Structure formats: C-alpha cells, structure tokens
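Ops channel
N.P.: pipeline sanity check, posting one input/output pair.
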C-alpha cells in the first residue's frame, strides 16, 4: 500500500502534501529572489492568477519587488506589461535599471476611479499582456473574483495594490503579501499562499533587484 501511494504521489504533481507548498497547474514566474521562490508554490509568482501586495507606505519597493520577474517577461514573452492607474508617474530610467524592456510597457490611466477595475479586468482577460499591475480603489470580493477569472483566461500574472485596510477582508487572490520596512530593510510577509499559510517576515534587498 505504501509503495502504491508513493507511486501515485510521484506521478501526480498536483496532489498536495501537507507541509509543502502546493503544486501549480501553470508554470510560475521566478521572482528573482531565491529565498522567496522556495516559499512559493511553483517556485515563483502565480501565473494566470492574482497576487495581492499591501504596502505599509508608498514608495518602499512595491514595483522593485516584481522587477526581476517583469524583466524576464519583457524579454521572454512577446506580450505587453501593463501598469493600470499607478499613483505616481512611472520613472522610465528606474524601470530600465530593473532590466525591463521599456518597449513592452503599456501605461493605462483611467479618467475616473471606477474605470480602473474595468480597465484591469479587460487587460487581464485580453491575452495581450503577460503581466498586469493595477492600483485599485477599494476593491470588493466580487470585483476581485472577476479579476481572478480574467487573469486565468488571459494567462496573465496579475498583481494588484489595494489600500492597507484591505488586509481585513477576504480575497480570491492566490497569493497575499504584506510589505514593510524596519531599520532600513524591506520585510515581506506571506499571509496567504496555496497549500500554506502565513510565513515569518522575509528580509529582501530590493535595491539589489
């Protein structure tokens, strides 16, 4: 019986075993941080799914955290990388320093806040974007479910940045993160992941990214 069970587990990578990150059906995008990849199902950012990042403050490395993955996608994937409603103007030299091909970037600035969710959903669903990063005004669970389905349909890496109070609400995101700083260091906490729960804060050097 034990041999048969072991054989089944080896042939079926989508079967989750407690204590280990869950397997994924779609290849993940490596984060560029080896210690973080080891904690994430599939060894990277979810593809065809949503990642939620809540930062305790603006400008503490929210985009830099995803920089290595975006750089990889801008080179290896012919689709676009879309930024939807960023709170500040994107600084092109900083993105270039992260290794991102600026020719693959699309900036979407909706004229009204309520259009942001619609723009993010349509971009995710289109299949024309390999990654979509969106700053969302007070998203609710229903709108996030629509975004999750859109990311799955478009095979896109979806990332959204809600307000800090969103951490108190449920989310259909496959991965939920909290970014903070302490003594000049960037601390990333995984509060939700497939096949596992919260992890101890991980210190990352986002300047090196």
């Amino acid at each position: 019986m034990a041999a048969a069970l072991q054989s089944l587990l080896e042939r079926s990578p989508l079967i989750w075993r407690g204590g280990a990150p869950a397997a994924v059906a779609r290849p993940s995008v490596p984060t560029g941080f080896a210690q973080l990849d080891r904690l994430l199902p599939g060894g990277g950012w979810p593809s065809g799914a949503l990642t939620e990042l809540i930062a305790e403050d603006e400008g503490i490395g929210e985009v830099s955290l995803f920089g290595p993955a975006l750089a990889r996608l801008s080179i290896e994937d012919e689709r676009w990388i879309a930024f939807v409603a960023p709170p500040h103007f994107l600084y092109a030299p900083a993105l270039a320093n992260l290794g991102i091909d600026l020719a693959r970037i699309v900036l979407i600035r909706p004229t009204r806040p309520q259009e942001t969710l619609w723009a993010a959903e349509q971009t995710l669903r289109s299949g024309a974007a390999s990654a979509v990063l969106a700053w969302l005004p007070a998203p609710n669970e229903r709108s996030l479910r629509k975004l999750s389905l859109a990311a799955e349909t478009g095979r896109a890496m979806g990332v959204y940045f809600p307000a800090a109070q969103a951490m108190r609400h449920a989310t259909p995101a496959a991965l939920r993160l909290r970014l903070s700083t302490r003594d000049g260091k960037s601390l990333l906490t995984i509060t939700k992941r497939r096949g596992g729960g919260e992890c101890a804060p991980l210190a990352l050097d986002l300047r090196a990214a």
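N.P.: looks fine end to end. The two ends are 48 Å apart (CA to CA).
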